[in-house]
Every structure is written in structure tokens, then in C-alpha cells.
Amino acid sequence: ADDGAEEGAGADDADTADLEPGTYTLALRFPTTVLVPGEVRLPFSLFDEAAFVNDGPAALGAQVVDLDGNPVGERMTARRYDVTPAAYYAWRPTVDAPGFYALAVDGGPAEGAAFQVVDPGEVTIPKPGDVLEGLDTPTVDVPGGVDPICTRDPVCPFHEVTLAEALDDGRGVVYLIGTPAFCQTGTCAPALEAMIEIAPDYADDFVFVHAEVFTDLTAQQLTPAIETAGLNYEPALFITDTDGVIVERIDAIWGAEELRERLDAARA
After folding, report:
1. What per-residue string of b and e applies to 224-260 under the rule 16 or more CB within 10 Å gives b?
2. Is 90 exceeded by the pLDDT of residue 239?
3. CA dihedral angle for residue 208, residue 250, residue 36, residue 112, rounded to 10 degrees
4. pLDDT for 119-174, tens place per residue?
């Protein structure tokens, strides 16, 4: 689809460490209160004085540092993913302890971009290792008081079975909570289009389910999907194994290429 993800730029062994600090401003593309110790996903877009930068380097290096500027873990490289409305890079460092950190990106601000890792007990949103709770999400046959069941036009193909039915199917589950019509981040529509693009290639291993955020077009009442997951942001995507255990949660922004990478890893 036109507003979906395009193929991401290749992440070669390009070293961007010689970029002048301050070349780019970093635009944070993830919720700030839901990262827990372990591998964390840090998607950022590049921004200049006027707009998002969509033609940045094919890959960018970065280093996590603590509040004193000491390196945490190894230096990393992330590829550029070309999506609408803005290309992004998603670094995946491992951070073992709660606290405040910064991601120092080549060409970004010298002080880096701050982020927080919190104690898992403070996060109620389902995370990797949790069992995804079943729910009778709206379907074409049983809308359950949600109208429309999908704010995409035409309706996406992921409303044939409920989440509960999908979890009993024996395959893994790819579960998207987001509303293309009202998404505050401007990424729900591309995220859904990415799912539509790749779903046929993964139908043997995963059941795809989409749930909306609001019960109707007045956007006043939240659906049970939001309440059950405890979400205060959108979109969010949960990938489970065949036992319903979450192996990956992707927040806020993603495209078809990154989603393919994560599904390939989940079924490996």
C-alpha cells in the first residue's frame, strides 16, 4: 500500500562516527515509561530545523551511556527503515538495570537522547515473557458493540477470529492494537498496512488479529482491548509463540521490513 513500509536501507558496515555532533536532532518514536531491563528497542527518527530527515545514512552507529557518560554495553549499528511518515532507526541494546540512560547517536546531539528503563513491577502493559490474555475482540460476525470494528477503509482482513480464538489456534499470534483513523502518532495506518503486506507470507505460522482503540467514531469510549492491555499509547503490536507467550512487543512505529525480521526471529 502507498502509506505502508517500503524496503529498509541496507545496514552495511558503514561507520558514521565521524559525523559532526549536532548534524541531526533525534525525534524519539517510542513511549518512555514501558522499557524494562533486558533488550530494549529504541526507535528514533532524524529531524532538522524544518522536517523529518528521510534520506539519512543507510545505517547509523550509536552507544548507550549512563548519566556520567560511561559506555553501557557495546557500540551498535542500526539500519534505516523507510516508512511513512518518517524514516527511522531502531537500536536494540541490552540494558540490565533500571535507571536513566542516553543513546549517543553518530551525528546527533553530543549529550545523546535520554531514555529510562523501569522496574518490571511498575509496568502493567504485557511484555515479553508474559502470557497474552485472551479476549473476544470484535469480528465481522460479532462486533461486540464496536462500530466500526476497523477504521481502515476497506476493513482489514484481521477481524475473522477473536484474539481468544487465535490464541487457541496452535499457531503464534500477531496482535495489533491501534486505530488508523485516530492514531495520535501518525503511524497506526502504516503499521496496519505493513501487516497486510506481509501476513500472507506468515500464515502458516501466525494468526493476525487487529483491535481498535475506540468503540465508535466519536472516539470517546475505549474498547476492552485497550483496557485489558492497560495501554496508554498506540499502536502496540504483540507477537506470541504457539503457547501464547509474548516473545516480542513492538511499540509506536514499525514497517514491513522490521516486522518481517521479528517474525522470522520468532519462528526460528
Report:
1. bbbebbebebbbbbbbbbeebebbbbbbbbbbbbbbb
2. yes
3. 180
4. 999 999 999 999 999 999 999 999 999 999 999 999 999 999 999 999 999 999 99
Single out the residue of 211, 210, 252 nearest to residue 234, CA to CA: 252
d(C-alpha 124, C-alpha 74), whole Å? 29
pLDDT at 98: 97
Directed axis angle between helix 256-267 and helix 188-198, to 10°? 50
Q: Considering the entire predicted model, what is its pTM?
A: 0.91
- Cell numbers 482482513: residue: 157
265 burial level (CB within 10 Å; 0-12, 13-18, 19+): exposed
**Which positions ≥6 away from 71 have C-beta within 8 Å?**
63, 64, 65
* Distance in angstroms (rounded) separating the CA atoms of residues 231 and 41: 17
Is residue 31 helix, strand or coil?
Answer: coil
How many degrees, rounded to 5, is the angle at CA 200 between CA 91 and CA 83?
35
Q: Per-residue pLDDT tens for 12-40?
A: 445 787 888 888 999 999 998 999 999 99
What residues contact residue 202 under an 8 Å CB cut-off, 6+ apart?
A: 174, 208, 263, 267
